[in-house]
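Hi R.,

Here's the chain you asked about this morning:
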Amino acid sequence: MKNIICCLIIIAAISVHAQQSKPYDMMVNGVKVIVVPSGNEIIQVSLVIKGGVQNYAANKAGIEKMAMKALTECGTEKDDKNSFKNKLDEVDGQVYGYTQKDASYFQLNCIKSDLETVWPLYVDALTIPKFDAKEFDRIREEAINNLRQQESNPDADLQKMAMETAFKGMDYAKSPSGTIDNLKTLTSTETKNYFKSILTRAKIFIVVVGDIPKEDLEKKMGSLIEKIPQGKTFELKRSSYVPQANSFVPKQKDVATNYIMGISSAPAANSKDYLASALASNMFYDKMFLEVRTKNGLSYAPAAYITNGATPYSVMYVTTKEPDKFIAVARNTVDKLKKDGFPADDVKNTKTTYATYQYYDNEANSSLCSMVAFNELEVGDWHRAFTLKEDLQPITPADVNTVFNKYIGNFTWVYQGDPKQVNPTLFTQKATPPVPAEKKAF
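And the predicted structure, written out as tokens:
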């Protein structure tokens, strides 16, 4: 009870702050700029380039991530790499880019009093990047080495295999990090030209978290955006992943245990089912942990979760030396939840803790900026970043149980380890295997 009361106090405090300092948006030279007053001395800016893996062909995967890295690692027409970084270090400012499946993000973070120093560097990196050939070759080799390291990381390799298997022929099969073969052929000139092609007003929006006078902000944004071409109209394509049957793809790998991942369907972040499904996913994770680890000792850290991108999906993951027993327990857990549903008290408590953790995790300016950007990109309405508590209220246990039954069905399973230790039929057959005898957790 004490934890729930603390949760409600935190949510109430955040709601009061939101009322006192209301976020707003404005159009500057045809680009949406979303502004969230923070009540502190930190400024966070994120320029979002929509598209992600939809922007390039499979044989060019990795080019966008390389471009975002090169913006700050290869210098600008005004500053070489060292000069650029030295100016940032003098004020402890940060300017950096990163990529995800649906978008790339170019960030600024500094204290308010240093904005006049950091802002010009941010604008230069976006509008007059140098893409110095020598520095580009250096960061390309670093990226190739990182990919080689990932190949030896069982979790990373399993994730890659799962995405390529489930989304074969779809955009989500592409990794923003690319492949070693792709990166080897990239040149600084090609990557620079690619970046110019995606940095257009039609593909971007900007999120600012911080206390900047509107007039000053409009002036800064105007000076940046006027240097960016309009470009062609762009809309992020959305799709669903619904496996028509259970499938199982094994891969021989010399590892200490067996790695398993299953991918099923999930609702879109902008659908009415999403929040109910998020609640179901949180509770399903708890049930899986209880059944797989606590009761049967089959894995140290089983996991279950949903994703919320342009092509959403659900995941089950485990490392285990007893894959046949795992799938029996997992499938029986799903069957029982579909039959009996989640308890009403669990749904009620999960609604409270889910909202609290979401707000708590996004207290920092950088995290709040990401949450607002996510809602604008994936939900289509940045305002939803501030209405979570209200949006959760009408969700009933029946809603949660309905979406769980609707989306958790067939799975695309991938397996890395010893194929002799697994019976693929147990993963693909329609009938659920019997639950093995319980044993003590390790």
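The chain has a mean pLDDT of 93.

Let me know if you need anything else.
M.
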